């Protein structure tokens, strides 16, 4: 069985060290602040440092996908493999997969030996990491590349990330709001409950206050999750909300394994501070 490498972009919100531990590698996206300073997501700037800079910034920073050279360098590190599976943030939110596609084409023209397979996760943040972790697990077990790709294709319509945020303003300013209405965000105390549907942000519910919003996230997980013993809790500079939602989950499932993930710069630019989310695979396809 040929050797398969797994790569994703830093939208997965795993640090390079954490990703390496899980068996995959990360290509960083970039973020540029109003003073012109540019940082590599998860490499030059931690989650905590990013939100400190965001709070001090008068304008929304600009995010950028990995460059063509970044992708080519990342692929070349695995030239001893037979196959490389590259999993990216939703193509509806970023051009990351386009850069990977161009890098693959250029490497093919150079005679690069490994086959590069591109997978659009149709997701963001640690929901992307769920794809990478699963692909790495299967590769380590010696599963064939086609079997892994079929599994990832199935996950596209089964993995979901559900979140509440303090303000839709970051999404609006960044042009990532899609079909989400601003109305819920303007009503006093109302928090929109959001997801990514076919790769785009969509509102599915609303709650009066964070506590009620967390309960809706937990109820959705208990109803729809394929595995009630594992869940990823994602947050943007909101430790108290992580504690709140973790306690809610543990009241229902005492032996639940909770994986905490801090949102980095690439996703945090559009979510802002105070966000809380759950990511998991569902029993039935979402579309």
Short summary of the structure?
The chain is of the alpha/beta class and 287 residues long. The protein is built from eleven helices and 13 strands. The model has no long low-confidence stretch (mean pLDDT 93).
Question: What can you see in these coordinates?
Answer:
There is one protein chain. With 287 residues, the protein is an alpha/beta fold. The protein contains 11 helices and 13 strands. The protein has helices spanning 16-22, 47-56, 68-76, 96-109, 126-140, 145-155, 169-173, 183-186, 210-224, 239-252, 265-271; strands spanning 4-9, 25-27, 30-32, 38-40, 62-64, 83-88, 115-120, 159-164, 190-197, 200-208, 230-235, 257-262, 276-281. The strands form 3 sheets. The protein has a 6-stranded mixed beta sheet, sandwiched between helices. Strand 11, helix 10 and strand 12 form a beta-alpha-beta unit. Helix 3 crosses helix 4, helix 5 (126-140) packs antiparallel against helix 6 (145-155) and helix 9 (210-224) packs across helix 10 (239-252). The longest helix is centred in the middle third of the chain and has 15 residues, at 126-140. It is globular, with a radius of gyration of 18 Å. The relative contact order is 0.16.
Got a strand count?
A: 13
State the distance separating the first and last CA atoms: 33 Å
Strand fraction equals 15-25%
The pLDDT mean sits at 93
Radius of gyration: 18 Å
Descriptors:
287 residues, alpha/beta, six-stranded mixed β-sheet, four-stranded parallel β-sheet, 13 strands, 39% helix, globular
